[in-house]
Amino acid sequence: MTGVEILCGLTVLLLLFYYYMVRPYEVWKKIGLPGPTPSLIFGNFYPVLIGKTSIGDQMTKFYKQFKHLPIFGLYIRGHHVLAVNDPNVIKTVLIKDFSKFADRGIALNEVAEPLSQHLFALEPKRWRPLRTRLTPLFTSGKIKDMLALILESSKTLEKYLETLVEKETSVEVREIAAKFTTDVIGSCAFGIDMNAISNEQCQFREIGREFFGPGWKQGLRLRMREAFPRLYTLLGYLLPEDQMTTFFTKVVMDMIEYRKENNVVRPDFINTLMDIQAHPEKINIDGHFHSELESLSELTKHLLVAQAFVFFVAGFETSASTISNALYELAQNQDTQDKLRNEIREHYKRNEGEWKYENIKDMPCLDAVFKETLRKYPPVTVIMRKNSEPYTFEDVNITIPKNTRIFIPVYGIHRDPEIYPNPDVFDIDRFKEDAVATRHPMHYLPFGDGPRNCIGARFAIFQTKIGLIKILRNYKLDVCEQTQIPFINEPRTFTLAPKHGLILKITKTGS
What residues bind heme, as annotated (predicted)? Predict the structure, then answer.
């Protein structure tokens, strides 16, 4: 090999190194947008990608560093990310110019993870018609209809609490809440009794633990999908379908077949999926069927099952987290706990033990506890979007290229002392009407905002509130030796979760 050949080879290697390892990190420099210095391989998210820091904590760190700027630039591996701090720019992304930012920018891998093609992650082409068809399930009227089913599940919760109190031991309140919400979802969405509270080996509860837990399988999948998408797709062809996908697909498809064969009709989630399966031509935008939506009928099986799957996992986890986080805070704030219990008992007495939709809406202390819990502990700590075309933010005079990922640091905003004084203090007075009026609406985003906000927010609100009502009316929560204070975020989960669980003492109170 001659010196010229060696020189040419080195030149090619240097050019490849620049193209793949250096050039991607020059996007924000060319635009003139500030941000923390990235590392060549991992960008600004090395602690997140190795499971050392949660994405919420990492984004909060950057938010504190650059919150004086309306926007700033980040990189996750070689992908550029725009972080948005300014509430008016956030409103532009989520609401004002939503059509340009309708994509969440989440990498879908339908081969390796068939159930990933769900409403939360879908690209706009399939998300929009499905959202339109599923939205009627979550109207106020539908929630009123579901209330009786939620209350029925709560009776099992009350019996379970009795047995726990008799044992006189500390309890993991996250597990109690998750069992309750799993049973509620089973009843309201699928028309089945999941028995999560009464059956320790409930398979649905096992799925929930596996999906949201800090286990190595989920962590590896998440990081492989993000760092090596092509390799991840290849593995999807080579590896057998995972147990979670197999089990949930069989349950949902068997349920659909049973209802068809026996002419069973229930006004629930499964029935809506059956209607979509039978009449894909009804899935339209503005009253017109679009040819690009034919993929919905082509991918009937896994596409439909994925919608049931995400409603199950999101429906139980976010509410269970909020219930347990509220109990954790109330155990440390006994005056607030007593105030809420008094409100619950007052309404119980006034309405002769009957809980109605309107009664629950008219409970200001309960509502404030719910909102303050989500302020301190938003389940989704970072809202993600991606732009479909080059976009100029007029407020800051910056133009970003197409396919820029957008990160909105919800956790950092919710913990900003300039917005919420003493942010680590649990203070329900933050949600008095006059206090709320002083804040920008984009400074409180537990459910997101705009057309792609959480579709099940109404359901989550009432499921959570009923859980708190049933627990707190007759029981008192206290901290114990095993209670971890302060709350430390688990770095290996993609939703906010405590690293060491939430263990509290529960005792019966007088009427």
Answer: 454
* Residue numbers belonging to the annotated binding site: 454
Q: Tokens 């090619």, residue?
A: 12
pTM of the model: 0.91
In a domain? residue 197: yes
pLDDT at residue 235, rounded to an integer: 66
What is the sign of the dihedral through the CA atoms of 287, 289, 292 and 293? positive
For the stretch 56-77, pLDDT in tens is 999 999 999 999 999 999 999 8
**C-alpha dist (Å) from residue 326 to 61, 380, 422, 451, 467:** 25, 16, 18, 28, 11
10 Å CB burial of residue 500 (0-12, 13-18, 19+) is: exposed
Question: Is 193 a domain residue?
Answer: yes
3-class DSSP state of 365: helix
Looking at residue 83, the DSSP 8-state letter turns out to be E
Tokens of 425: 């203090």
> CATH number for the domain including 303?
1.10.630.10
Distance CA 213, CA 123 (A): 26
SS3 (DSSP) at 494: coil
Feature table: binding site for heme: 454
pLDDT recorded at residue 96:
98
Instruction: Please give the distance of CA 88 from its chain centroid, rounded to a whole number.
Output: 23
Point out the residues of the chain with pLDDT beneath 70. Answer: 1, 3-23, 214-230, 232-241, 281-300, 511
Grouping H, G, I as helix, E, B as strand and the rest as coil, residue 507 is strand
DSSP H or E run through 346: helix 334-350
Sign of the torsion angle spanned by Cα atoms 85, 212, 220, 500:
positive
Buried residues in 297-308 as b, exposed as e (16+ CB within 10 A): eeeeebbbbbbb
Supply 471's token pair: 């627990």
Measured CA to CA, the distance from residue 92 to residue 104 in angstroms comes to 15
The Cα–Cα gap between 504 and 173 comes to 7
Contact predicate 405/76, CB 8 Å: yes
Residue 155 lies in a domain: yes
Task: Give yes or no for a contact between 214 and 490, defined as CB atoms under 8 angstroms apart.
Answer: yes
Query: What is the per-residue DSSP string for 2-49?
Result: -HHHHHHHHHHHHHHHIIIIIGGGGHHHHHT---PPPBTTTBT-HHHH
pLDDT given for residue 290 in this prediction:
45
* Residue indicated by tokens 């007759």: 474
Residue-wise pLDDT tens digits, 330-375: 999 999 999 999 999 999 999 999 999 999 999 999 999 999 999 9
pLDDT at 209: 79
Q: Is the omega angle on the peptide bond into residue 486 within 30 degrees of 0, that is, cis?
A: yes
Q: Which residues, listed in sequence order, are joined to residue 39 by a DSSP beta bridge?
A: 43
Q: Report the 10 Å Cβ neighbour count for 245.
A: 19
The one-letter amino acid at 418 = E
| The total number of structural domains that make up the chain | 1
Cα separation, 497 vs 509, in Å, equals: 29
In a domain, 443, yes or no: no
The residue length of the chain stands at 511
Domain range for 356 is: 117-375+455-508
